[in-house]
Amino acid sequence: MNPKSTKKYSLWFSQACLIVFALLLLYLDVRGYWIVRWFLDVSHGHGGTRDCILFMTTIYACSCCAWLAVVQLWLLLRLVAKGDAFSGGSVRCLRITSWCCFAVALITLVSALYYLPMALLALCAGFMGAIVRIVANTFESALSMREELNLVV
Predict the structure, then answer these.
(1) What is the DSSP letter of 116?
(2) Global pTM value
(3) Distance of alpha carbon 139 from alpha carbon 60, whole angstroms
(4) Residue 75 CB partners (closer than 8 Å, separation 6+)
(5) How far apart are alpha carbons 128 and 68 in whole angstroms?
(6) Relative to the CA of 152, which of 30, 48, 80, 103 has its CA 20 to 30 Å away?
(7) Using CA atoms, how far apart are residues 106 and 109, in angstroms rounded to an integer?
(8) Confidence of residue 118 (pLDDT cuts 50, 70, 90)
(9) Contact, 142 vs 88, CB < 8 A?
(10) pLDDT of residue 18
(11) d(CA 74, CA 93)
């Protein structure tokens, strides 16, 4: 398999994963109330209206960040497909995605006040935000090196 077709399949796989994630996110958005009710029924000690409202608020606040991240990642994949991965647009997409991760980390950290396991989600989202931020910084550094190289040539 030549490298060009491997790149094409890798890009296709990334797009397919993003579509699957978007569909699962849409399912969660549509079925959120019923999923929360089910969760509160099986987790003993929770289940009141207050808990339902808190969980739903957390889910939908995080969902807004997730949709923004999905859009930015889709735009990034389009830039990669065009061969313009190291551009200002890709750095912008990655920075917005990292801020989405940090927002989810903050939302879930606050939610840990009423449901402690949310702290684990906050840790994961914050770590993901840090990774994406490092990748954005790497892309920005590569972009400035490319611009410097173009000036030399």
Answers:
(1) T
(2) 0.87
(3) 31
(4) 89, 93
(5) 15
(6) 80
(7) 5
(8) very high
(9) no
(10) 97
(11) 9
